[in-house]
Structure formats: structure tokens, C-alpha cells
Amino acid sequence: QVQLVESGGGLVQVGGSLRLSCTASGSGERVNRMAWYRQAPGAHRDLVATITSGGSTNYVDSVKGRFTISRDNAKNTVYLQMNSLRPQDTAVYFCHARVGVVVEYDIWGQGTQVTVSS
């Protein structure tokens, strides 16, 4: 079965940048849409950005112009470049992937903490 492994979180000052990575590994199944979600303490898990296997992207309004999602299909890896970070970006960031051909299923990464300090 496919698993997602994330990396790249950490502590950064306001206005700084971080790059998150998430690699899908395992059974070799087709990885379709990939996405990043985030969850702040006491809040719901919210969608941040999505990218299809063809490279089409979508962003939540609060990160447009600051975050960029991209992927390397050969490596089954999705990235989230985060610039101009704000304290309200502080959250655990989760990678998500929709996997399969005839029947799709969803998988999640373990999450990586991003903390933006003022």
C-alpha cells in the first residue's frame, strides 16, 4: 500500500520561507491528485492547495501569491513552497493523496509542524 512521508517543517520568523516535501512510496499504484492541508490547534483540518497529476493547481485564498504547490511525478513527490509566512500559517501540515485507477482511495501523511514566530 502507498504511504506518504513528509519533511521540511520547522520554526521560522514572520516573513520567512519554508519548503515542505511529501513522497508517496509503496506498491507503485497510480497517485492522482495530491494536496496539502493544515490544522491549527483547536481547529478543523483545512485545505491549503491541490495539484492534479497534470499539474493543475488550486489554492485557498489566504495563501494565494505566497504559497506554491508543485510535484515531480517521476518521484511521486509533492512540494509546498511557503513564502512570506505569517503567524496565522502556524499549523500542522498534512500531505494528502488520492491513489488508484479503477477504485480510488485516500491516504494521509503523518503531518509536519510549521511554526511562524513573531
Overview of the molecule:
The structure is a single chain. The protein is mainly beta and 118 residues long. The chain contains no helices and 11 strands. It has strands at 3-7, 10-13, 18-25, 31-39, 45-51, 57-59, 67-72, 77-82, 91-99, 105-108, 112-117. The strands form 2 sheets. Strands 2, 4, 5, 6, 9, 10 and 11 form a 7-stranded mixed β-sheet that branches. A 4-stranded antiparallel β-sheet has the order 1-3-8-7, with no helix packed on it. A hairpin with a 5-residue loop joins strand 4 (31-39) and strand 5. The chain is elongated. It starts with a strand and ends with a strand. The model has no long low-confidence stretch (mean pLDDT 95).
Task: Detail the topology: elements first, then pairings.
Layout: E1 3-7, E2 10-13, E3 18-25, E4 31-39, E5 45-51, E6 57-59, E7 67-72, E8 77-82, E9 91-99, E10 105-108, E11 112-117
